[in-house]
Amino acid sequence: MTADPGHPTDSSGMRVTVTAAAGRLELPALVIDGRATDVTVTGPDERGRAVVTVGGERGGERRTLLLRDLSPRPGMPADGILRREVVIAGWRVELEIEGERRAALRERASRAREAVAHGGPTEVRAIIPGRVLSVSVVAGDDVVAGQQVLAVEAMKMQNELRAPRDGRVTMVAVAADQTIEVGDLLVVIE
Amino acid sequence: MAISPSEVPSLRKDRVGERPFRRLLVANRGEIAVRIIRACRDLGIETVAVYSDADVHALHVRLADDSVRLGPPPPTESYLRIDAIVEAARSTGAEAIHPGYGFLAERAAFARAVEEAGIVFVGPPSATIDALGDKLHARRLAREVGVDIVSGTLEPVAVERPDQASAIVAEANAIGFPVLVKAAAGGGGRGMRRVAKPADLPAALVAGSREAEAAFGDGRVYLEREIAPARHVEVQLLGDAGGTVVAVGERDCSLQRRHQKLVEEAPAPGLDADARQRLHAMAVRIGGAAGLRNAATAEFLLDPRGTFHFLEVNTRLQVEHGVTELVAGIDIVTEQIRLAAGLPLSAEVLRAAGQASEPIGHAIEVRLTAEDPARDFAPTPGRVTRWQFPSGPGVRVDTGLEEGDRIAPEYDNLIAKVLVHGATRAAAIGRLRRALDEIEIGGIQTTLPFHRFVAHSPLFRAGELSTSWIEEHWDGEADYRQAVRLAQLAAGVVALRDGSTTGVVTRAGARPSAAAASDGAWLSAGRELAIDRWPR
Fold first, then answer.
1. What is the DSSP string of B262-314?
2. Which residues of B are catalytic?
3. Domain A122-189, CATH number (from 2.40.50.140, 1.20.120.420, 2.40.50.100, 3.40.630.30)
4. ipTM value for the complex
5. Which pTM value belongs to this model?
6. Which of A181, B26, B258, B479 has its CA 20 to 30 A from that of B171?
């Protein structure tokens, strides 16, 4: 794989645009971020296994990968964004995939929204499951970025969760001893 | 240390050939519980599993002949409950208890409770666990039998005596900075502090002592010189009730992260028969002096000049025992069970001990864990949606995980030990690459990419190992970004082929850890406390 380590990324993380060359759907005539690339993908089979080859069928780099649909229901979800887990070389990558035109519209809209909502509330959510050991703030407290807001025990380790930004705590959604799952709302800072 | 004869089970040569026990309880979970149950099956011994509510459907429970619930998931309410485990053995008629590693394996109080209940503890006697669990005692013992120890103090440092401060600093200067403050009751790096200069010593002593007090109920600390760069080399010991102690080989466990071993191999690369013989003899002297029965491991640091310095003895089965089994051609767990029944060391073990200084073949183990090697090995508990492990010539996988299982945040995050065996170290590395390529695991991030890197590293192939290897050579973030790019291309192609558009955008970085704004702080806190996991 001849990935370009200096590839530019945007604020939403690493982003790659894949386009069929000259509007043709026949593969492998692909354009990736504006450059013609020789990529072929065989599969995925019914267990989600696919083989990707970069740089020609012969002599190119071949990798087996696992593809899994992370959308609650299979098929194109309502918001038009496909969510997929890809495991490659042992790395687990969660991807969001959407049509190029739709993505452009949505990104423009979200940039506008960000500009308006700058300074709006920030929801701090659990990034690993575990048990809340202690909560060091209550609603109404002023916090500064980096200040500890709570401690969570996960996999026999104590993890301190810190405020992502300056602001005022408007809500504390958990209490000590409570078990939390990934994505659970913990605190809101405004 | 002295053990009175009444505490030592007598050697039962008359029972050779008989089944050592009728029924044995396995006081553990995960891969090691499965490993022990398999050994019992091999010996024709019935097994009793214990489990918490998190493990009702676990493989070890299903494989056992009988099982007993201990309680809710937290270890203190289940796998650490001495009373409940002894009672489970009593009620199911188990004659012996194997503690595995971790949990209660090195708690003398557990061994004592088992002994007092009239049940056989598969491991050294409680008195030996007590004596060797005290690192200062072990250091004094090693010195008494003429073994070079890591230079440092032999008595606890008088932390609570401010008038002694200058004497302590003078002692540390004599040892040489940087020094390590270590807990006498230590394990897994708890209570440990690295001190670079004399001015920082008093505070480090107090902090280390407090941490040790909290973790072990024993605040005694001592000083040890830091040996860097160093290799971690350990010797597998086995001893029978007749007082015979043998070494069956050594392992190199230098690839560590915060005192957690990630890769182990046997034999230790680059040692000649002479060095090996000297190392094994030192370990046997320590084991003999400690009155070792059953299995234990003597750990040493190997400095760049080729000198071994004794570190400590672990009085239990080690996670990495399998690499020694593959090279020596023995089964350490069945041997443990036989030794616990009072049988003498088996002919296979005595033969392996005789050949230990000139081992044939090479074995490597990697510990596949639920940790993210691009995010400083932060834990990644969750459900495993795909799990297919390797097989074929020279490959052994020890695991308790099945597809669909959840890696519970309450317990150690070891998923599987992947062991390979070949005629030479190079052949073993070739098999490791092949085995790792065959692994399919989805749903959670694991350390697989790190192990692939090691298997392909020219430095690892050259046997250039040290305890700081991972910090010096592994760049997980760069490796991850390469994979992300390829994942995006592949997923983009598939979406383009399946969809009706002529172009798609793929965005990465949706992993929970990357999405959270508090990411950095969370992980650095996790990193600091990673050493708090139980030693293994």
1. EEEEES-TT--HHHHHHHHHHHHHHHHHTT--EEEEEEEEE-TTS-EEEEEEE
2. 316
3. 2.40.50.100
4. 0.86
5. 0.83
6. B258
